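Obj: model holo form, ligand = flavin-adenine dinucleotide.
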Amino acid sequence: MTERDSKRLLTGEIDVVVVGAGFSGMYLLHRLRALGLSTMVFEAAGDVGGTWYWNRYPGARCDVESMQYSYSFSPELQQEWRWQEIYAPQPEILRYAQHVAERFDLRRDIRFETRVESARFDRARARWEIVTDRGDRVSARYCVMATGCLSAARMPEFPGVETFRGPIYHTGHWPHEGVDFSGQRVGVIGTGSSAIQAIPVIAEEAAQLTVFQRTPNYSIPAHNRPMPPEYEAMWKRRYPALRARAWETRNGIVYDLNDQSALDVDDETRRKIYEQRWAAGGIPFMAAFNDLIINPAANETAAEFVRQKIREIVHDPETAAKLTPTSYPIGTKRICVDTNYFATFNRRNVTLVDVRKTPIEAITETGLRTSATPYAFDALVFATGFDAMTGALNAITIENDAGERLADKWAAGPRTYLGLMAAGFPNLFMITGPGSPSVLSNMMVSIEQHVDWVVRCLKDLRARGAVGIEASVQAEDAWVAHVNEVAHRTLYPQANSWYMGANVPGKPRVFMPYIGGVGAYREICEKVAANNYEGFRLLAPVAAAAE
Ligand code: FAD
Ligand code: N01
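Output (holo structure tokens):
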């Protein structure tokens, strides 16, 4: 079953179906093939790349340095690929994904423009029946959901959206041909990471830009620059050691963590350390001290430093006050990394509207209306984020042999064992699922760790003559309790973040990723596997004899 883009329907039996051809699905395909398993990948998009295929908005780039936001599995690949900037822009990351697809000949087993609609488990045969929107019907021993944590773009339900006469764009579904905002009046809704990257670029092009902000964000300058050759050479020389170090860290990124409390130094020293971190830029700002995410008083010192920076950068005190976050601790919503974000509000063609004070009431034919004012626009940009972590999974009808749906099981919040499997749903794996470090980490590290674990698991199952694996309810309950307990030792639950599901009306408020750290988590996964897959039950081939 190796046809791509064929109009012919796919049917029949294979070993593994993978859903999604982002970095997770691509690496899975490569590894599963090497294991000799017949594998088919279904991908809704027209090509590989996932996040980097869809999010083509102006200014889109990674905020983990490119030397680290890349695959480590192939020494040749990591030596030959040359990143052009410290933080790669979206087109370059997409080119990298395409290069990987070509280098490892992946596309021949990926069926593009094909969305998986349902997956049903047949316990008697220990097989998943997968159905796509093209009508493909494939039976697979294992199904791996590589559907992405930030792949289900979210449009808030403002009344009147369909009446707007101009184009409406979502950052997560940007047109491939790009958008020319020259001379236009543009409204951007949202001030999360996507908006913070897009706003400075759109502001340079548009005649007028109006930003509708509900919650201000903390953002650290990226100080992006062309890749210094000696920096690239250092990484390439030391890759094996540095990658191994990343695996042991909290968030899968190698950087300098100051193992000191923010409260153990005097004001002057603290300020100096923050200044150095601000000058260096990026996510490592949050590693200025070791207690920023657990101690409210320590956190407040970092938050206040950033607030002061905003007041220094933004000339108009009223705009600066609106842009200043005060309602949640720094870092408890994903920290943003920007290029000229705050300074953009000094431009004469940029206006900030606080929609917490004057909410958006409706999209109109000519623009939108807040409770205070009507606004006229030529184009609207929704930078309103994603139904994160569970959105793409719940969009698929995933049903077990008892007729239970994963979405129903998760009605009060996702429940998994290790973020890899859910009890009652044998042979169904998730890559970077809820309950794993996932979105709190350099995702490339977490993706590779999960893929390696799943592939090893399938190899072990084959060696033991098993036809499947299932998480036990007890192991899942204990893991969910642990994930919650660790989250509540931190300040994270204090923010209305997408980590908590708070951005989607009606979504249960549960802290979804595992905050115990990439290194600690890897160790747990290794122990579980070494301990005969503790907490899992292996399925014997008895039932499969019915095949
Ligand atoms: P994705 O890249 O999301 O791929 C999932 C794929 O599954 C998609 O192509 C989707 O179309 C497909 N799919 C989903 N459902 C179905 C279905 N039912 N049928 C068929 N196909 C389906 N992480 C970092 O670590 N560092 C960063 O700097 C960073 N920057 C980011 C910037 C943006 C704008 C966004 C949105 C995310 C960013 N992330 C970052 C997170 C990013 O999502 C991950 O780093 C990584 O790309 C995820 O890869 P993935 O393959 O797991 O998922
Ligand atoms: O989405 P978001 P995003 N009315 O959910 C607002 C990764 N990423 O696409 O905060 C008015 O963060 C919402 O307001 P509020 C990264 O992990 C990384 O920006 O909910 N406003 C918020 O301001 C990131 O965290 C990069 O009050 C509404 C915004 O829309 C994740 O992807 C770049 C609204 C949504 O922000 C998601 O980022 C981009 C409404 N009804 C993305 N509904 C890098 O830099 C929502 N909003 C690497």
